[in-house]
Design goal:
With about 200 residues, the protein is α/β, with parallel strands linked by helices. It has one domain (about 25-170, about 180-195): Alpha/Beta hydrolase fold, catalytic domain (Rossmann fold), CATH 3.40.50.1820. It has helices at about 20-30, 50-65, 75-90, 115-120, 125-135, 135-140, 185-195, and strands at about 10, 35, 70-75, 95-100, 145-150, 165-170. It has a 6-stranded parallel β-sheet with strand order 2-1-3-4-5-6, sandwiched between helices. β1, α1 (about 20-30) and β2 (about 35) form a beta-alpha-beta unit. α2 (about 50-65) packs across α3. The two termini are about 15 Å apart. The model has no long low-confidence stretch (mean pLDDT about 95).
């Protein structure tokens, strides 16, 4: 088993828990990665995604040495939360590789409930417009991979996961939740973390 140098932090999506990553965690651990995850609270849209990003900042401060570089994976809503951490909370100075999986990087028409965290994921939201203004300059020193499936029924339209930077991985995975457990997705994630 190879010892991978960077630990990997996984950040889940809306209404998920860290257990969402059970398959991925087992897969990556078996290949030698030290894998971390925690539960975002609350993850039901009642709080701003900014509050959830601050939880990443606290987790990193409490669990990684100050000079520890790490890799970051954000799934679905967790993709926007991780981007806020990277772009607004200084995470881009700590992270070497970033993987965005089926995230509403350009918003989703599915974000219809009038809750702060959900409205931040909506198409044309100020939260997303703000992040997209400087995404390239903020993430230019990070190895970025963005993954999506054209069959996504949570990210509408599905290509809203697109980022203007990094490497695209398009997979024919039939359901949004399977993007963190499908064998093709796991192989693509391991490849991105290895490059």
């Amino acid at each position: 088993m190879t010892n991978r140098s960077n630990p990997v932090l996984l950040v889940h999506g809306f209404l998920d828990k860290k257990s969402k990553f059970r398959t991925m965690e087992k897969y990556l651990t078996k290949q030698g990665w030290s894998v971390h995850s925690f539960d975002l609270k609350p993850n039901n849209g009642y709080q701003s995604l900014v509050n959830l990003a601050q939880q990443i900042e606290r987790y990193v401060e409490e669990n990684f040495a100050p000079d520890q570089v790490f890799d970051l994976v954000g799934f679905s809503m967790g993709g926007l939360v991780t981007r806020y951490y990277l772009q607004r909370l200084g995470g881009n100075k700590r992270v070497q590789r970033y993987i965005s999986i089926s995230a509403p990087n350009n918003g989703t028409f599915a974000a219809i409930l009038p809750l702060p965290g959900i409205q931040e994921m909506a198409r044309q939201s100020e939260f997303i417009a703000d992040l997209n203004r400087d995404v390239e300059s903020c993430l230019e020193n990070i190895q970025v991979t963005w993954m999506w499936t054209p069959y996504d029924l949570m990210i509408l339209p599905a290509n809203s996961s697109e980022l203007p930077i990094g490497r695209e991985v398009k997979l024919s995975v039939p359901l949004h939740p399977w993007m963190v457990s499908d064998k093709r997705a796991l192989e693509a994630i391991a490849l991105a973390l290895s490059s």
